[in-house]
Design a protein that fits this description.
The complex is a heterodimer of chains A (about 350) and B (about 150). Chain A is of the alpha+beta class and about 350 residues long. Chain A contains nine helices and ten strands. In chain A, the strands form three sheets. Chain A has a five-stranded antiparallel beta sheet, sandwiched between helices. In chain A, strands 6-8-9 form a three-stranded antiparallel beta sheet, covered by helices on one side. Classes of the chains: A alpha+beta (about 350), B mainly alpha (about 150). At the A-B interface, strand 1, helix 5 and helix 9 of A face helix 2, helix 4 and helix 5 of B.
Amino acid sequence: MSDEISERLSKYLGAKFGGVVDVTGLARIPGGASRETYRFRARYKRDGKEIERGLILRRDPEASLINTERTTEYRAYQAFHKLGLPVPEPIALELSGDALDRPFFIMEEIENCTIGSIVSPDPYGPHRERVGRQFFEALGKIARADPDAVGLSDFDGARENSWAHEVQRWEREIDEDEREPQPIARAAIRWLKRNPPPPPQKLSVVHGDYRTGNFLIDADGNIRALLDWEMAHLGDPLEDLGWALDPLWSHGDIEHASGTVPRAEAIAIWEKASGLKVDPKAFRWWEIFASLKGAAIWISAAREYSDMRNADPINAFSGWYCLAFHNKILADRLSALVDA
Amino acid sequence: MKPSATQILGLSAGKLLGEILPQLPTQFAQGATSLVAFLLMFSAQESERGAEIRVNENAAMRKLFAELAPLVSDAALKKKLEAAAKSVASSLQISDLDAANYELRCVLIALQIHIEDMQGEKARAAEKRIWQVLKDAAAARIVTIG
């Protein structure tokens, strides 16, 4: 299987780079349920010089041939790599199934790095503050970027009432994928619709899944790669901040954002980098939205697994552990609002 | 006494994480194995308390419906609440308890929407009462790792 993919990759890259490309060491690595992720080494000549580099292949799974998300992710990598954020260099995007049966893209491999597991109590150890400062500063820079200037102004999202666009998006997911009634998620949707947030201070590119577990750090605690841009869209930049600060990513300590710096410090770093202010009332809305969005994603994951469309254990884990977690967070937060 | 399902699942998870995972040669195999081990841990918890969680959750909803039915002005909803309050699951098997839970949750959503639209102190107290049931249910269904 690996040999066959290596051979076909070699042929594809040879045509792309114009020469012989030797592909070795192809191995599947963890990369979420939405894409098959492989690392490999490519050796080729360019301008008479021998080059060897590690690359990552992200291929659509058999159950999905949705090209739009693949293109979205690739274009986001291109835009923010150019902007100088720690984002891997995208190398090639292939939307047809000609080369490897399904669409895929290739990007550089950021080597000798680790990812903080969401179930680890202290994934960053002595580097937690350093990681937190970089993490929220980079998020502020994404919020600050002008979607027109970075060439992503045609991304999905509403220029007016982006909150409503997002609520509808995730309500639709729940409508399509719930296997049993979800009273907490439904109550959250009603609350979000009845209590809309103020208009965004600016329209931004929203990463869509900016959290612990979606970035790579090296041994010195430097963030080397911000990953998983497949849910990127246009919207209120508070959406990403709410998601990044969600308790599910807090490693058991909600006072420390994503297992790093204290929440207030994270928000201050983000404000400085983005040039925006966090209105507590608006942010409260986006925090509740974040947990609702999480619930919707986990409901979909559970459905994928239960229907055997994608039996990756991450889908069962998400549909069980993560959904139960977000239902509790939503119930606690919404009942507190009713009590108040 | 033979080992319980809870014990078998829990020990199997520990075996996977402690002994088998470190022997696996690739990061992908290690990642997938740790996830399977977590699923075994959750299954161990479910095996021990799954029926109790559902019985308690269903009982709490039935009690809530009996309490709040007199507040409801919509005749059709009131009738549903009264019927649901008296309903019983056909057995203690998880699938039957889930089927009952499905029906009760549908009624709960309809009740909550109705109460949210009502004015007055009694309605707000009822809303809090509904949230208490939801909070308790959500807390009971949390699964833990380790």
